[in-house]
């Protein structure tokens, strides 16, 4: 259907962290390793929805708006390479429970609404390089950034002028993190 949009729920990266990541990435990988993802496109996908009709998008955004969950801290301390999709990624060695719960809820709501969900287990990651189909020297460690996740967003993936851009459409806050 022509009015369908390609949508996904994801965690945005704070602007300052985007800049830190791309500065580090420029030193950590050679230009041959793969095609760098633009700073503004860095995100961590929670649930990929695919091409979605306006009616389904409305139903899914209403469900997303009812989610009540505390925020959490996310430490980016893992790196890897998936040669088949050609992706070099940044991830976490210990996914916080809040991240797994949020992704699980969004993915099950998507599945119940008829959006195909991959049977592969959820592996939280931020894609750093694409078209990385050749062996890549992965640095032994990341700087180990930690950031506070206070919201999640719905994005539209748009291919225009030969580039893919991810437009944030809507954002929902997570409750304040409990301090003990
Ligand atoms: P990737 O970065 O590992 O390619 C927008 O395309 C986002 O949705 C990207 O983060 C992408 O993951 C993810 N994505 C794209 N197609 C997907 C699919 N079929 N299943 C799960 N995630 C997908």
From TrEMBL:
<feature type="domain" description="Phosphoesterase HXTX">
    <location>
        <begin position="11"/>
        <end position="89"/>
    </location>
</feature>
<feature type="active site" description="Proton donor">
    <location>
        <position position="43"/>
    </location>
</feature>
<keyword id="KW-0378">Hydrolase</keyword>
<dbReference type="InterPro" id="IPR014051">
    <property type="entry name" value="Phosphoesterase_HXTX"/>
</dbReference>
<protein>
    <recommendedName>
        <fullName>RNA 2',3'-cyclic phosphodiesterase</fullName>
        <ecNumber>3.1.4.58</ecNumber>
    </recommendedName>
</protein>
<feature type="short sequence motif" description="HXTX 2">
    <location>
        <begin position="125"/>
        <end position="128"/>
    </location>
</feature>
<dbReference type="Pfam" id="PF02834">
    <property type="entry name" value="LigT_PEase"/>
</dbReference>
<dbReference type="GO" id="GO:0008664">
    <property type="term" value="F:RNA 2',3'-cyclic 3'-phosphodiesterase activity"/>
</dbReference>
<dbReference type="InterPro" id="IPR004175">
    <property type="entry name" value="RNA_CPDase"/>
</dbReference>
<dbReference type="InterPro" id="IPR009097">
    <property type="entry name" value="Cyclic_Pdiesterase"/>
</dbReference>
<feature type="active site" description="Proton acceptor">
    <location>
        <position position="125"/>
    </location>
</feature>
<comment type="similarity">
    <text>Belongs to the 2H phosphoesterase superfamily. ThpR family.</text>
</comment>
<dbReference type="GO" id="GO:0016874">
    <property type="term" value="F:ligase activity"/>
</dbReference>
<comment type="function">
    <text>Hydrolyzes RNA 2',3'-cyclic phosphodiester to an RNA 2'-phosphomonoester.</text>
</comment>
<dbReference type="GO" id="GO:0004113">
    <property type="term" value="F:2',3'-cyclic-nucleotide 3'-phosphodiesterase activity"/>
</dbReference>
<feature type="short sequence motif" description="HXTX 1">
    <location>
        <begin position="43"/>
        <end position="46"/>
    </location>
</feature>
<keyword id="KW-0436">Ligase</keyword>
């Amino acid at each position: 259907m022509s009015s369908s949009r390609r949508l996904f729920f994801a965690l945005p990266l704070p602007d300052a962290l985007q800049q830190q990541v791309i500065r580090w990435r420029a030193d950590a990988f050679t230009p041959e390793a793969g095609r760098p993802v633009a700073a503004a496109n860095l995100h961590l996908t929670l649930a990929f929805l695919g091409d979605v009709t306006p009616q389904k998008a409305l139903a899914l955004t209403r469900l997303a708006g009812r989610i009540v969950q505390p925020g959490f801290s996310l430490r980016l301390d893992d790196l890897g390479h998936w040669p088949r999709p050609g992706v070099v990624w940044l991830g976490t060695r210990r996914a916080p429970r809040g991240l797994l719960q949020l992704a699980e809820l969004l993915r099950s709501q998507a599945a119940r609404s008829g959006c195909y969900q991959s049977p592969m287990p959820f592996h939280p990651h931020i894609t750093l390089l694409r078209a990385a189909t050749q062996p890549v020297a992965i640095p032994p460690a990341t700087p180990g950034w930690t950031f506070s996740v206070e919201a999640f967003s719905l994005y539209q993936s748009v291919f225009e002028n030969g580039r893919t851009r991810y437009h944030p459409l809507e954002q929902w806050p997570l409750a304040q993190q409990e301090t003990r």
